[in-house]
Design a protein that fits this description.
Blueprint lengths: L2 E3 L5 E6 L4 H13 L1 E7 L5 H12 L4 E2 L5 E6 L10 E3 L4 H10 L7 E4 L10 H8 L3 E5 L8 E5 L4 E4 L7 H9 L7 E4 L8 H12 L4 E4 L3 E4 L9 E3 L4 H14 L1 E6 L11 H9 L2 E5 L2 E6 L7 E3 L7 H8 L6 E4 L11 H11 L3 E4 L3 E5 L7 E2 L5 H14 L2 E3 L12 H7 L4
Parallel strand pairs: 2-15, 3-14, 6-7, 10-11, 18-19, 22-23
Antiparallel strand pairs: 1-23, 3-5, 4-5, 7-9, 8-9, 11-13, 12-13, 15-17, 16-17, 19-21, 20-21
Helix pairs in contact: 1-2, 1-6, 3-5, 5-6, 7-9, 7-11, 9-11
Length: about 425
């Protein structure tokens, strides 16, 4: 599917933030591991979260509900996995990483596989770590990458793990740790990337009754036997997806209000608000929600976004409309996402007239005269949505593979239509 975007000026719109993908994944898993029933409200309905829900169902967890209201009958930390069955995570990196450790709670070996791109995304650091606490793992293709076979038991103990490629390696172990035979102490030799997602993991674990101690982002000890308890859980709004709406105000001018966001969220993409403010936007929390507006020119900035990876591309699109260059640092791990997002972002911006300089851990956007063009997002949902907001500022931009927004935000195009922008 392709969509051509008209130019929008001085937008006046209100959008509801979609549910958080990160919180939904984690709440599903905690509810499945818990004793008793959990009711998850405002759950995100998207391709990625459906993968997690479907795997839990295949592993014997009763899950019911339609829309954003989901009931989960937890089994107290046990899964009924079918011997020899291959589990396809498709393009969900969160799912394959989380279920890699959760597979140790199955009584039979588990095979995890995914899309072609999934088999290019490294998982070796996680495998090396869980081997030290009872896992037996075999790579079925390239060493250090999916597909893989996992068996063994979650014994517990002391382990060290690197988070320089993904904080999800750490979250994977933390989520399963209450069901280890002994306490697990997890040590990180360096500050992990995307550390705010670890905060989200720990928040969900705490809300479901787990007990842990932490020392910043360098070590975590999770108490064995302090299991999750079934609970009623409300998923908060997603800052990563809401950033696209905020960006419309920044790029097109005018005023946008976003409802359903938590001002005290642990989500790392909360930093996006600071970036917008530094570039010249006005940010106000009002009774009806978060309001973003812009009247004057945008200024370029230098900012570290290592803990806010999912809004980096969106910020790059805003930077292309500024009057001076922007440099975003701490983003090397974007090369390991659904696509090489640094290269994809550079390709989009160059196609539409901006100049981009890529470094090992940074991207610099040099604004230039922007023009219409055709954007190939390489089947990456975040590339599509970030390019779309810039397209609204330019007009005449055609987005290919527009349907891949289904991975995280299936209603994206509908929301733009409802606001009169399409």
């Amino acid at each position: 599917m392709r969509i051509q975007l008209p130019r929008a000026k001085e937008v006046q719109a209100t959008f509801a933030a979609p549910p958080s993908k990160s919180f939904t994944h984690r709440a599903y898993i905690a509810g499945a591991l818990a004793e008793g029933r959990s009711v998850i409200s405002n759950a995100l309905l998207a391709d990625d979260t459906a993968v997690t829900r479907n795997i839990l169902t295949e592993w014997g967890i009763p899950i019911q509900g339609s829309g954003g209201l989901v009931e989960i009958e937890g089994k107290g930390g046990t899964f009924c996995c079918e011997k020899g069955k291959r589990i396809d995570v498709h393009d969900s990196g969160t799912s394959i990483r989380f279920f890699t450790t959760l597979a140790l709670l199955c009584t039979v070996p588990v095979v995890l596989e995914g899309s072609r791109r999934m088999h290019e995304r490294p998982i070796g650091s996680l495998i090396d770590a869980i081997r030290r606490i009872g896992a037996e793992c075999t790579y079925l293709g390239k060493e250090g990458f999916p597909p893989l076979r996992i068996s063994g038991t979650l014994q517990g103990g002391n382990i060290e793990i690197s988070g320089k490629e993904s904080s999800q390696f750490i979250s994977s172990i933390l989520l399963a740790s209450p069901y280890a035979q002994e306490d697990i102490t997890l040590t990180c030799p360096e500050i992990p990337v995307s550390q705010a997602y670890i905060d989200i993991t720990l928040r969900v674990m705490q809300d479901f009754g787990a007990r842990y101690k932490r020392n910043g982002y360098t070590s975590y000890t999770v108490q064995s036997g302090a299991h999750y308890t079934g609970t009623n859980y409300m998923v908060e709004g997603d800052y990563s997806s809401a950033a696209y709406f905020m960006a419309i105000a920044a790029i097109c001018g005018g005023s946008v209000t976003v409802t359903g966001l938590n001002p005290s969220t642990p989500q790392g993409d909360h930093l996006f608000l600071e970036a917008l403010s530094a570039m010249g936007c006005k940010i106000h929390w009002k009774e009806e929600g978060l309001n973003i507006s812009r009247e004057g020119d945008l200024s370029g900035i230098t900012i570290n976004m290592s803990s806010s990876p999912d809004s980096v591309q969106t910020l790059c699109m805003i930077a292309a409309c500024a009057r001076s260059p922007t440099t975003i640092t701490g983003v090397h791990h974007l090369r390991l996402k659904e696509s090489d997002r640094l290269q994809s972002t550079a390709d989009v911006l160059r196609t539409l007239g901006a100049d981009v300089r890529l470094g090992k851990e940074h991207i610099t956007i040099l604004p230039g005269p922007l023009h219409s063009g055709v954007v190939d997002p390489k089947n990456d949902h975040r590339t599509v949505m970030s390019a779309a907001v810039l397209g609204l500022g330019i007009g005449g931009v055609t987005i290919l593979q527009a349907e891949c927004v289904n991975k995280s935000f299936p209603e994206f195009w509908m929301r733009l239509r409802e606001a009169g922008l399409l």
